[in-house]
Design brief:
By secondary structure, the chain is α+β, with helices and mostly antiparallel strands. It has 2 helices and 9 strands; from the N terminus they run αβββββββαββ. A hairpin with a 6-residue loop joins β8 and β9.
């Protein structure tokens, strides 16, 4: 069952890349774990997931797979910050799911959670987006669930 979900996310990622004509430099990844959160949440400390981001001319596309979450995903976004630190800004830089992004219904299930989509970059400057792709390790992906504010996290690479 889990292998089928992993295969589905890999195929979604390949499909998004092919559909957007993404170049190699326009793709980022993140390996997320509950243990990467600051502080580590008790409920999802063993949860993990992957995210693939693909930049195209109209926006930023994503594919998400997460296992071991405690409830459905309500937010999925990018913050600025190196490993072990939290972003000091009150709002995320890019929102994929949640307020300002796609509805949480694009993420199916929560153990595993899978989903994909594309968001326009209306509120992201070209300079910020370029910096994310030039210095991905200075940014992290964060997934929030209905029960855990910051369930899993991973640096971009």
């Amino acid at each position: 069952m889990k292998l089928r979900h992993v295969f589905s996310v890999v195929m979604m990622t390949i499909g998004i890349a092919a559909a957007t004509g993404a170049a190699q430099a326009d793709v980022l990844f993140s390996a997320m774990e509950g243990g990467n959160q600051v502080p580590v949440p008790r409920a999802t400390r063993l949860a993990f997931g992957t995210a693939t981001l693909i930049r195209n001319g109209q926006g930023l596309c994503f594919a998400l797979l997460a296992v071991g979450l405690d409830s459905p995903v309500v937010e999925f976004h990018i913050h600025k910050g190196i490993a072990g630190t939290n972003d000091t800004a009150p709002n995320p830089l890019v929102v994929f799911v949640g307020s300002g992004g796609l509805p949480p219904s694009v993420i199916h299930g929560f153990n595993p959670a899978t989903g994909s989509g594309c968001v326009p970059l209306n509120n992201v400057t070209t300079q910020t987006l370029n910096d994310i792709f030039l210095h991905p390790r200075h940014y992290y992906i964060n997934v929030h669930t209905q029960k855990t504010d910051g369930a899993i996290r991973g640096q971009l690479f």
